[in-house]
Automatic annotation (TrEMBL):
NCBIfam families noted in UniProt: fabD (TIGR00128)
Species classification: Eukaryota, Viridiplantae, Streptophyta, Embryophyta, Tracheophyta
Listed Pfam families: Acyl_transf_1
Superkingdom classification of source: Eukaryota
GO molecular function: [acyl-carrier-protein] S-malonyltransferase activity
Organism encoding this protein: Gossypium tomentosum
SMART domains named in the record: PKS_AT (SM00827)
Domain Malonyl-CoA:ACP transacylase (MAT): residue ranges: 83-382
Identification of the protein by name: Malonyl-CoA:ACP transacylase (MAT) domain-containing protein
Amino acid sequence: MHSLRLASSAHSQSLFTMSAASASLALPSPLSSFRSNGPLPSRCFLRLNNPSRSRVFMSVSVGSQTVVDDALFADYKPTSAFLFPGQGAQAVGMGKEAQAVPAAAELYKKANNILGFDLLDLCINGPKEKLDSTVISQPAIYVTSLAAVKLLHARDGGPQIIDSVDVTCGLSLGEYTALAFAGAFSFEDGLKLVKLRGEAMQEAADAAKSAMVSIIGLDSEKVQQLCDAANQEVDVADKVQIANYLCPGNYAVSGGLKGVEAVEAKAKSFKARMTVRLAVAGAFHTSFMDPAVSRLEAALAATQIRTPRIPVISNVDAQPHADPETIKKILARQATSPVQWETTVKTLLTKGMKKSYELGPGKVIAGIVKRMDKSAEIENIGA
């Protein structure tokens, strides 16, 4: 029951080869932190941080465009993973520990210049109501999670742990953090995207009466049946759908306010243990977020995105992607697509993941992983 509470809180608080002759080989510099600064080679590079898993990353320049095989990471075999939290993990006081490590503290200073307000003050002192808002919590969690990587790097054995990580992912917002850690874009560019994402999602939520609710105690098939029953009683504008496949027994439903109310009214008749209305701005990960997509697409088109140095598992399809243009499309779709977190964690465990780390505020992800496999080894790294 304890892990169930942890898992449900993820939302109850708020709750992405044309001509081989033109390829060249380059060697990346070793990891110093989370490797989000500086471009990765644009054509071909060899991973050196773990020789047993070294691979050549092939891409080919065609004219002025670099074509990357998007299936580059399809056969990934995880041993050590970094998992990053999503909206809902925020808590007043986060970021305080990070101030003891200069490299971590520096991230908040950089963030202030990009965001135009004192992020650290809001993280440490609140007020909670402001920190919980979509436009504040998303950049706050992004920065604090990457600050946690800096804290880990500063401790004994930390650099070796970071070097050993061979796959990463994040819950909803956390996918942006994972991409920054994997070097797909810089810390600064990632923060700009997260800032815009929060603003665009808030505006989309303000445009229509919508909500989210967690359904506890049912499998996904039963939750779908519950949604179908509710949808028979409301207009098209109030339809609901499963928006977050979090873990067995815990799924979030999003949609119009009347549809969510119908779900709540019918839940007990479907033998749900409980429902928890989520303190979020609106129906995230559904078509209600459509107004945010065009803004995200424009921002992503203007952002330099590189092939990640390790696999980053997408929330949209629970698969890793290597082609920067595909990553941009996936991130734009993420706002309106159901989060496939259950499949992501299940796949990591099935593929043989031996150790994982939750980096950032809260312990929601650890609760989910433990719920899916009690013997799983996961460590929390806060900031």
